[in-house]
Amino acid sequence: MNKQDKHRILVVDDEPTVCKSIRQALVREDCEVDMALSGEEALSKDAERPYDVMIVDLMMPGISGVDLLKQLKARNPKARIIMVTGYPTMKNTLQSMLLGAMDFLPKPFLPATLRSLVAAALEAGNDKPEGSGAAG
Amino acid sequence: MFIRKNVRRFLDLPLRRKLILSFLIVIVIGGVLSLIVGMRIEHQTIISLAEAKVRHDLGSAWMVYEERLRSLRDVVRLSATQEFFRATLGQTDLKKVAGRLDGIRREFGLDVLNLTDALGRVVIRSRSADAPVGDDVSRDPFIALALQRQVPAGTRTVPREELLMDGADLADRALFRFVPTPKAAARAEDHEDKGMMLTAAAPIVDESGVLLGVLTGGLLFNRNYDLVDRVKEIVFKGEKYKGHDIGTATLFQDDLRIATNVLDDQGNRAVGTRVSREVKEAVLDRGETYVGRAFVVTAWYITAYRPIKDISGRTIGMLYVGMLEKPYIDLRDRVMATFAGIAALCALFLLGLLAFIARRITRPLAVIVNATGKIAQGDLRHRVDLKGQDEIGQLARAFNLMTDELCLAHEDLTQWGRTLERRVEERTRELRETQDQLIVSEKLASLGKMAAGVAHEINNPLTTILIDTHLLLERPGRDAEEQETLNTIAGETTRCAAIVSSLLDFARQTPSQAAPTDINGVIDRTLELLEKQASVRNVLIEKDLDRGLPPIEVDKNKIRQVFSNLVINACEAMPTGGTLVVASRMSRDGTHIEIIFTDTGVGISKENFPKLFDPFFTTKSFGTGLGLAVSYGIIRQRGGMINVRSEVGKGTVFTVRIPLADPEEGKHVEEAPQ
Description:
The structure holds 2 protein chains of 2 kinds. Chain A has 6 helices and 5 strands. Chain A has helices at 16-26, 39-48, 65-75, 90-98, 111-126, 131-135, and strands at residues 7-12, 31-36, 53-57, 80-85, 103-106. In chain A, helix 3 (65-75) links the parallel strand 3 and strand 4. In chain A, helix 2 (39-48) runs parallel beside helix 3. Residues 128-136 of chain A have low confidence and may be disordered. Chains A and B meet through helix 1, helix 4 and helix 5 of A and helix 11 and helix 12 of B.
């Protein structure tokens, strides 16, 4: 599996330590995990080359998680995005799901939990032909 | 203007003075008027009495005069019938006859006793032996009548020539030089030489009826005081007043006093003076009887004058009686003084009475005025103590009635004010409570916001720790001790996550999982778990539970959390041990279940009291300060209440009141985790 075939994952969180930890938890041989510390950075990186799965923190300065979700979904309705938040509420959970998030994970979480969610998301993407990757 | 000003001044006077002044004016006017009228009436009464008396006295005096006239006539008549005269008349020895006549004259006190022959010629003038005789006096009216065998008697005026024939002394006695008298009518002469004589004549007739002659007797009134003194004696009985004779009598020849007992200022008989012009005109000129006040010589008299007429009816003189006016005036003055005195006494008495009445009227008024002042100053208990059925009494009663009602009204007002005050207090307290609750709600809201922030901020590092720890654990080649440490870190991090989660639960008021629950059961379970902890702290827990309580809809986990908090708080309030009584019961109105936690701990100080349910408020170095706040939130959410009563040093009572009906039933919960 070459570098081109690796799953591409982007972690978006305004806190670098959180970003790093999540990246560490997901790093595997078949996965390439990038980090973005803001919504803007995430948008530009995704525009450069789209990711298979994005893990987005709900509360960020600048473009918030919900806005980022909206814009990414607007750009690519098939984008697979997992929302995480330190302050899970019924409201933001429902909102995220309605906007098309793959899943919603309250912080803190175990690496295993995240991995299983990411795996599920990647699997969902594999059901389809490699279109998303090819398209990017 | 002056009158108006004074009337105004009068009206402005105090009531009592006004009354007294009014009555005084009435008394003075009435007194003066009655005095004037009384004095006039009295004066007239006294004067007319005096005049009646003097009129009567004049009658008496006239009787004295007539009696004298009659006695003279009798003397003359009787003498004329004596045998001796009949025998001797016509004889030549007249000397003897004259002597006899003179004897008779002297005996009876006559001034003149003359004998005339049948032709009217004077034969004997008995007064003096050498008196001329032989003159014809037949034309003399008395002689003429006597010659006609009548016995006339009367008063006549005798000319000086005739008096001289009877005797020079007689003529001299009759002669008066006028004493100047201011009020008398003017007369041309300055003297009077005629005399006024009481005269009687009687015929001397012999046995055969032949007229022999006439005997004529006379009494000269001039300077003859016998008659007037006799009048004074008989009529006035010689009464004196302050050294003066009260009664006086006078004989006037024309207007001249010829015989009188009126004295002049030297104490001599005031003969030679004349009568006033007024009297002269009335009596002498008009022939009337005059009665009235007259100034006689030196003093005022009440007088009566009667004309004396001669035999032909001509007025020749007057008879006068007079009473000194002074006694009457004095009497009048005395009576008036008495009258005035009585009037003054009456006025004085009336004034006293008036002052008394005015006092009776004004004193109660003053009492009422005083009472009004007292009540105005706020002494509503003051009452007027006045009896009586008059207007003042009615006023006093009305006043007291009014004051009673004022008092009642005032009490009502005060009561109302108190009620108002109490209600205001109640409302204020309610408001404060509402506000407190509001503050609590606000605090809860702010707690929620803060909890959200905190959760977010803490959850991020927790995420890092948790992931990194697990990543470490996933790496192989570690000894058991390191593995254990990493496990501990992971476990504690998970616990932190749970704490944050429960904080969020509180902040979010997570929905309760209510089910019919036996509160006593919850208490039992809670105490079971905490009993050991309590006994370590030397706290004895007693239960006083009403086992008959109905089950209520609550989330039993939350309620247990509340009870645990309260029990732990109570235990911590008793650091040296004590007793905690947990009681349950139905509220008195049957709408709530009450769970009461009574400890014997240190109590809550006043300053700490309001902060009791504040989140993060704690007096303990180890507490989170969330216990009571969370408990309060839970109970409030269920529609209940937690009340606290505490006394420092004695202990604290927490009462949890939970309504039987759940207010949240059927409501949707907006926010819930995941």
